[in-house]
Specification:
heterodimer; A: 312 residues; mainly alpha; 79% helix; elongated; B: 819 residues; alpha+beta; FAD/NAD(P)-binding domain; Jelly Rolls; seven-stranded mixed β-sheet; 23 helices; 29% helix
Chain lengths: 312, 819
C-alpha cells in the first residue's frame, strides 16, 4: 500500500487540500459580509472562482487519463490530487454558497456537485478494497486459469461418469453442456444451481461414506434426495444428484462415485469464484457510470449557474 | 582405367560457393580448369539442405564481394539461378556426378581419380567440398528403402502418415514437432533424454511426448528397415530397446543423425589436421594451401561458413595459384578503420602493433583479427572526457591503444585514481555479466580506443580457447576488484586498490557448470572457498525451525560464500542454483592473503558480514521475504534487469497500462496484463524483463536485437527479418511477431466530445493478408519517452512498477510490513 494513490508523495495532495480547506474556513469565519454569508460577497466570489477552477481541472482528468504521450506527471499523482481536491471541493463549495439553499439552478448545481463527489468517494472505497478481494478470491491464479481448471474437471468427471453408469454419463454430459454456455458469464442462477448441487452432494457423500463404512446406516428417506426428486424433477443438476445418490445406495459404487462427487463439488467452488470475480470486477467499473455523467451534469449546471449569476 | 585426355592447370572439387567462385575466376582468366561435382546439380548444401524458399543472407554485410560470379541476398532459388546463369556466361567447365576418390602425384602433376574410374591431370587442386557432403547414416540393413529420408522439405505437405524420426538433436526434434500436427510420429532416441538439444526444443518435445502427441522410444537402437507388404505402411523399422525388439510401421523414416567431417577422405588425401577431434578443420597455411603442397582448401572446409567469404576465398585461391600476391578483400575496410591512428604506417603494421600492445589479441590468427578490426572503430577521447558512467551498459569492448583512463567513484578523475593503461580492456565485466557499470571511466590524457561491438567481441571470445581463458581471467579479476570496491567506505578513492593484486587469485579458479536446483554447498559445511557467478543465479537459504527459508538471491557478477570467510566458521546457508548456472570457485585462503594487503577493507568486510548476520537473524522470523524471493525465482523474474510487476492489491484492472502501451507502440500492446504468474498480490504480467543474459538475442540472424546503453534490450525494426527465432527462444513469451499498420492518429477531444475516430489506446488489427511483412516486437522500456515506461506512467493507482528484481524484493518486503 506504500505506493497507493492515497499515500502518493507522502500525502502531499492531502496536505494541499487540507491547507486550502483551512484557509477557506478561516476566511469564512473572519469575514463579515454585508448580510448573511453567500456567494454574493468578495469571499463568495473568490471561493466560487477557486471552486470553478477546481471543477474544470477535475473534469480534465478524463482527458489526462487518455493522454499516453508527453505526460510529465504520472497518472497516479493525478489521481491522488484528483481525489483530495475533489474532497476539498465539498468544503469550498459549501462555504461559497454560505449554506444558502433554495429550489433554484444554483442549489441544483450544488447538489449535482455533492452527488459527483459522493460517487467519487464510493469509487475510492472500491479502489481501496476490491482489488484485494479479487486477489483473495482467485488466489495465485486468474479467471482464465479457472476456466481451464473447470475444463479439466469436466473432462475428468465425464471419464469417471462413463465408468460408473451410462445414465450418469449422459447426465454429466448434459450438465457440462448447459454450464459451458453460461460459464463465460456465470450468472447467479448457474451459481445457485451449482451450489445447491454442491450442498446436496455433500450430504450425499456423507451418506455414501456412512453406507460404505457401515459405521452407521442412514435410510434413503433421511437424505434430501427424495425431497429433491419431488421438488424440481426437470432440473438436470437435481436429477443428476438424485441418480448419484440412488446409485450410492443401490449399487455400492465405491470410490469412483466419491471421486465424481468431489469433482462436482470442486467445480461448484470454481464457478462460485468466477461469479465473485465478475461481481468484483463489475464493482470497479460500475461507480464510474454514475460519477462520469454526474460530473458532466455538474459542469453544465455550473456554466448555467455562472451565466445566470452574471446575467441577472 | 580411362583417363581424361586433357590436362588442366587447376581442378576444383565441389561446386558450392567457394568452388564455383574459384572456377569462375579461372574461367574468366582463361585458365584451363575443371569443376567437379559429385551431385547432379550445383552447390549441394544450398540446393539440397536448404529448405525451399529459404532466405539466404549476404553476411558479413560490410565485406565486399570479390568474385567473378554474382551473389546477392535473396531466396535460395534466386541465388542458385544467378549462379547457373554465370556458369553459362563464363563457360565454366563443369562435370556433375563425379565424386572424388583419390589424388596422387605432386604439385604440378596431380592425378585426380574419380569414383567412376576416370583420372584427371591437374597442376593444382582446390578442395571446396564443404562439410555437409557427409551426413551420418545409420549403416543398417534396408537403409536404402525408398521410405528412408535424411531431411524434411516441407512438413505441411505430409498428412495422416506414420513417420519415424531417428535422432535426438535439434533438427530431429524440429522435424518431429512440425510433423506431429498432422501425422503420427514416433521418435527413436538412442539416449534416455534430449540433453543434446537446445533446452527449449527439449522442453517442447518432452511436453509433446507427455501429451501423447509424439511417441518416443528411449534407449532405442535401429536394427533394420524392412519392406512391408499388404495394407498400411510401406516399411517398418526394427528397433532394439530395453524392452526387447520392437517393430514400428512407417510410411516415412527420417534419419537425423547429424553430419560428419569427411576426415577419412581428407586423411587419405594427405591433408594435415591439428588434432584428432572429429570437429577439427584442416591446417591451412599461406594462400589457402594445405599441408600437402599444391592442394588448396577453401570455403566451409576451411572453417569459413559464410557464403560471401567462401566465394572471396575461391577467387583469391586462383590468384595465389597464378602467383599473384593479393591483398585480402577487406584491406580497404581495415584501412578505413585504422587510418586515423596516430603514427599510422599501414594496415599490416597497425595489426602487428595491435597484437603486441593488446595482450588479448596476441594469439589470434590474422583472419580472426582482421574480422575483429573490421567490425571495430576508433574512439578518440580528450583528457577529462568520460568513456562511461555508473549505470551505463557496455555496448562492446574497448581496448586502449594510446593514453590512459582513470576509474573514479565520484566522476572526478585525478592521477590518484586506479588507472587503466595501453592494452587493457574496457566494458568487459558489463558485457560478460549483463550488469551496468558501477564507476566512472574518464580519460586522463588524450586517449585512443578501439571499440568493438558486442557480437564481434563475443565471436572473438569464443574463437580460441586461449582467448576464452584470458577473458575469463580478466573477468574474474575485475569482479573481484568490483566486489572489493563495494566494501570500501563511500568516500575513499580507488588509488590504493590494484587490480593486479587479484591476478594470482583470479588465475586459480575452478569453473562449475551446474543445472537448476543443484546445491553448491550445504549449511554447516566447512568453509574452504568462495564463489563468483559467471551466469545464472543462486539462492542462499537457511534451515529455520525445520523450514527452509530463502535469505538472499545472488545474481550474475556477484560473489557469495565470502561472509563466512570474513567471519570465520562453517557455512551459515545452503547455496542452491536457481537456473542453469556457471560459477567460478576460488580458494578461501588466497582471498585472506589478498585481504591482508588491505587492512581497512578487511575490517569493513568483517563488520559488514557481522551486520548482515544480525539482520538475517531478525529477518528469519519474517517468512515473507523468503516466499517473495522464491516466487520471483520460480517465475524467472530474477533473470531480468527491469521487470514489470503489478501489485494486485492496488490494481483496479482498468487495463490503462495496455492501452498506454498500444498507443505509444503502433497500436500493439507489448504487455499482457491478465496473463502471467501471481503470488499473493504480486502479479508478473507477460512483458519483457530485459534479461541479464537475453535468450532472444542468441540466435538473431541479422543481429537486430541488442542491449542499449541504458540497459534495455531492443529490436531494430529496420533490420528484423521476421524469422521468429527470438519468439521461439524467449522463455517468457514476451516477443510477438506482428504485421500491423500503424493506427490512424486520433483526436482525443473529438472522440471524447463527439465519439469521432478511434478511442485512444485501442489496439489495431493484426494483418494476415501478407501485404505487410512480420516483425518481432516487444517492450522497449519506452526509451523514447522522457517520463519513462508508458504503462507505469499511465497507472492510476500506482500498482504498476518497473524495477530490478532486488528492488522488487525490497518493495514487497516493505509492503508486507505495512499491511
Amino acid at each position: 500500500m506504500n505506493r497507493s494513490f492515497i499515500r502518493q508523495d507522502q500525502f502531499l495532495y492531502l496536505k494541499i487540500a487540507l491547507g486550502l480547506c483551512c484557509i477557506s474556513i478561516f476566511l469564512y469565519v473572519v469575514d463579515d459580509p454585508v448580510g448573511p454569508p453567500s456567494g454574493n460577497s468578495w469571499l463568495g466570489y473568490t471561493l466560487g472562482t477557486v471552486g470553478t477552477l477546481i471543477i474544470v481541472w477535475l473534469v480534465w482528468f478524463g482527458v489526462r487519463k487518455r493522454q499516453y504521450t508527453g505526460t510529465r506527471y504520472s497518472l497516479t499523482r493525478w489521481l491522488s490530487a484528483h481525489v483530495y481536491m475533489g474532497t476539498a471541493l465539498l468544503v469550498i463549495g459549501t462555504l461559497h454558497c454560505g449554506f444558502q439553499f433554495d429550489d433554484n439552478i444554483h442549489t441544483m448545481a450544488y447538489i449535482l456537485m455533492v452527488l459527483t463527489i459522493l460517487s467519487g468517494m464510493i469509487g475510492v472505497y472500491y479502489y481501496l478494497t476490491v482489488p484485494g478481494l479479487i486477489s483473495a478470491n482467485i488466489k495465485n491464479s486468474n479467471a482464465q486459469q479457472l476456466h481451464e481448471t473447470i475444463d479439466q474437471i469436466d473432462r475428468k468427471a465425464l471419464e469417471i461418469a462413463r465408468q460408473i453408469d451410462s445414465h450418469v454419463h449422459e447426465m454429466m454430459a448434459y450438465t457440462i453442456h448447459t454450464t459451458l454456455k453460461e460459464r463465460r458469464h456465470p450468472s447467479k442462477k448457474v451459481l445457485m444451481d451449482m451450489l445447491r448441487v454442491g450442498e446436496t452432494i455433500k450430504e450425499a457423500s456423507k451418506a455414501c461414506y456412512c453406507s460404505l463404512t457401515k459405521e452407521e446406516s442412514i435410510a434413503p428417506s433421511d437424505t434430501p434426495v427424495s425431497d429433491l426428486k419431488q421438488k424440481d424433477p426437470s432440473d438436470p443438476h437435481m436429477r443428476l444428484s438424485a441418480i448419484i445418490i440412488d446409485l450410492s445406495f443401490n449399487r455400492s459404487p465405491g470410490e469412483k462415485l466419491q471421486q465424481l462427487l468431489d469433482l462436482i463439488n470442486e467445480k461448484a467452488t470454481c464457478i462460485h469464484k468466477l461469479h465473485l470475480d465478475r461481481v468484483y470486477n463489475r464493482r470497479l467499473k460500475i461507480w464510474l457510470m454514475f460519477h462520469v455523467p454526474l460530473s458532466l451534469a455538474t459542469l453544465i449546471a455550473l456554466v448555467i449557474h455562472i451565466v445566470s449569476v452574471f446575467y441577472y | 582405367m580411362s583417363s581424361d585426355s586433357s590436362s588442366y592447370k587447376v581442378a576444383i572439387i565441389g561446386s558450392g560457393p567457394a568452388g564455383l567462385s574459384a572456377a569462375a575466376r579461372a574461367a574468366e582468366l582463361g585458365i584451363p580448369h575443371i569443376l567437379i561435382e559429385s551431385a547432379p546439380d550445383i552447390s549441394n548444401t544450398v540446393n539440397f539442405w536448404y529448405q525451399k524458399g529459404k532466405h539466404v543472407m549476404d553476411e558479413p554485410a560490410n565485406m565486399p564481394l570479390r568474385s567473378s560470379t554474382k551473389f546477392e541476398e535473396g531466396t535460395r532459388e534466386e541465388v542458385l539461378q544467378a549462379w547457373k546463369e554465370d556458369i553459362d556466361r563464363l563457360k565454366i567447365n563443369l562435370r556433375f556426378n563425379s565424386a572424388l576418390k583419390a589424388i596422387s602425384g605432386d604439385r604440378g602433376a596431380f592425378e585426380v581419380a574419380l569414383a567412376n574410374g576416370e583420372v584427371i591431370q591437374a597442376q593444382s587442386v582446390i578442395l571446396a567440398i564443404g562439410t555437409m557432403g557427409n551426413i551420418r547414416k545409420l549403416g543398417i540393413p534396408g537403409e536404402d528403402h525408398p521410405a528412408v529420408a535424411y531431411k524434411l522439405d516441407d512438413a505441411s505437405l505430409l498428412k495422416g502418415q506414420r513417420i519415424i524420426v531417428v535422432g535426438a538433436g535439434d533438427s530431429a526434434i524440429e522435424d518431429a514437432i512440425a510433423l506431429s500436427k498432422n501425422n503420427k510420429v514416433t521418435v527413436i532416441n538412442r539416449r534416455e533424454g534430449f540433453d543434446r538439444a537446445k533446452s527449449r526444443n527439449a522442453a517442447a518435445i518432452l511436453r509433446a511426448i507427455q501429451n501423447k502427441e509424439i511417441d518416443c522410444i528411449y534407449g532405442g537402437v535401429p536394427e533394420s528397415v524392412l519392406a512391408r507388404t499388404g495394407e498400411g505402411a510401406s516399411a517398418e523399422m526394427i528397433v532394439e530397446s530395453a524392452n526387447g525388439s520392437i517393430t514400428v510401421p512407417a510410411d516415412l523414416i527420417i534419419i537425423r543423425a547429424g553430419a560428419m567431417p569427411q576426415r577419412k577422405l581428407l586423411d587419405s588425401l594427405g591433408v594435415g589436421f591439428p588434432n584428432e577431434a572429429e570437429t577439427a578443420f584442416p591446417i591451412i597455411g599461406e594462400g589457402y594451401q594445405s599441408t600437402r603442397a599444391g592442394i588448396y582448401i577453401v570455403g566451409a572446409l576451411a572453417g569459413c561458413p559464410l557464403i560471401k567469404e567462401a566465394m572471396n576465398q575461391g577467387y583469391e585461391a586462383i590468384e595465389f595459384i597464378e602467383g599473384r600476391s593479393i591483398d585480402p578483400a577487406d584491406e580497404g575496410l581495415l584501412e578505413e578503420v585504422l587510418k586515423n591512428l596516430p603514427d599510422y604506417r599501414g594496415v599490416k603494421e597497425a595489426l602487428t602493433d595491435l597484437k603486441t600492445n593488446v595482450p588479448m589479441l596476441s594469439e589470434v590468427t590474422t583472419l580472426v583479427l582482421r574480422e575483429y578490426v573490421r567490425e571495430s572503430e576508433l574512439l578518440f577521447l580528450k583528457a577529462g572526457e568520460v568513456l562511461y558512467k555508473p549505470g551505463d551498459y557496455a555496448q562492446g569492448i574497448s581496448a586502449i591503444l594510446k593514453g590512459s583512463l582513470a576509474l573514479s567513484r565520484d566522476g572526478n578523475a585525478s592521477e590518484r585514481n586506479y588507472q587503466y593503461t595501453v592494452g587493457s580492456l574496457q566494458g568487459l565485466t558489463s558485457i560478460k555479466s549483463g550488469l551496468p557499470q558501477d564507476v566512472w571511466s574518464i580519460a586522463l590524457e588524450d586517449t585512443v580506443l578501439l571499440e568493438t561491438p558486442l557480437r564481434a567481441s563475443q565471436k572473438l571470445f569464443n574463437s580460441v580457447d586461449s582467448i576464452k581463458k584470458t577473458i575469463d581471467h580478466i573477468f574474474t579479476r575485475r569482479i573481484l576488484l568490483r566486489s572489493f570496491v563495494t566494501l570500501l567506505p563511500e568516500d575513499s578513492l580507488l588509488e590504493d586498490i590494484n587490480e593486479m593484486h587479484f591476478d594470482a587469485l583470479a588465475g586459480d579458479v575452478e569453473l562449475m557448470s551446474l543445472k537448476a536446483g543443484q546445491v553448491v554447498y550445504q549449511e554447516g559445511a566447512v568453509t574452504d572457498a568462495f564463489y563468483i557467478i559467471r551466469s545464472g543465479a543462486v539462492t542462499l537459504s537457511r534451515d529455520f525451525e525445520g523450514k527452509t527459508q530463502v535469505q538472499h538471491l545472488i545474481s550474475t557478477g556477484e560473489w557469495f560464500g565470502n561472509d563466512e570467510i570474513f567471519l570465520g566458521g562453517n557455512r551459515l546457508d545452503t547455496a542452491t542454483t536457481t537456473s542453469r548456472t556457471e560459477i567460478l570457485k576460488l580458494d578461501a585462503s588466497k582471498l585472506m592473503a589478498v585481504l591482508a594487503r588491505y587492512p581497512s577493507i578487511q575490517h569493513a568486510a568483517e563488520r559488514r558480514a557481522r551486520n548482515m548476520l544480525l539482520k538475517e537473524q531478525q529477518k528469519s522470523t519474517e517468512t515473507n521475504t523468503s516466499a517473495v524471493i522464491s516466487f520471483l525465482d520460480e517465475t524467472g523474474v530474477v533473470e531480468g534487469t527491469n521487470v514489470l510487476v503489478i501489485d494486485e492489491a492496488l490494481c483496479v484492472r482498468c487495463d490503462n497500462c495496455e492501452k498506454a502501451c498500444a498507443e505509444t507502440h503502433g497500436g500493439i500492446s507489448r504487455l499482457n496484463r491478465k496473463a502471467g504468474d501471481t503470488f499473493a498480490t504480486i502479479h508478473v504480467p507477460v512483458a519483457c524483463r530485459h534479461c541479464y543474459d537475453p535468450s532472444c538475442m542468441k540466435d538473431c540472424p541479422p543481429d537486430a536485437i541488442s542491449r542499449q546503453a541504458d540497459g534495455d534490450i531492443s529490436i531494430n525494426a529496420n533490420t528484423c527479418i521476421g524469422c521468429g527465432n527470438c519468439v521461439a527462444n524467449c522463455p517468457f513469451g514476451v516477443v510477438q511477431l506482428v504485421a500491423a499498420k500503424p493506427p490512424e492518429p486520433t483526436s482525443l477531444l473529438s472522440w471524447l466530445l463527439f465519439g469521432k475516430g478511434r478511442p485512444p489506446g485501442q489496439e489495431t488489427e493484426h494483418l494476415h493478408d501478407g501485404t505487410t511483412s512480420k516483425k518481432a516486437v516487444k517492450c522497449d522500456l519506452c526509451v523514447h519517452q522522457a517520463s519513462g515506461p508508458a504503462c507505469v506512467q499511465a497507472c492510476p493507482t500506482g500498482a504498476a512498477l518497473r524495477k530490478s528484481p532486488d528492488q522488487l524484493v525490497r518493495i514487497f518486503e516493505a509492503s508486507h510490513l505495512n499491511h
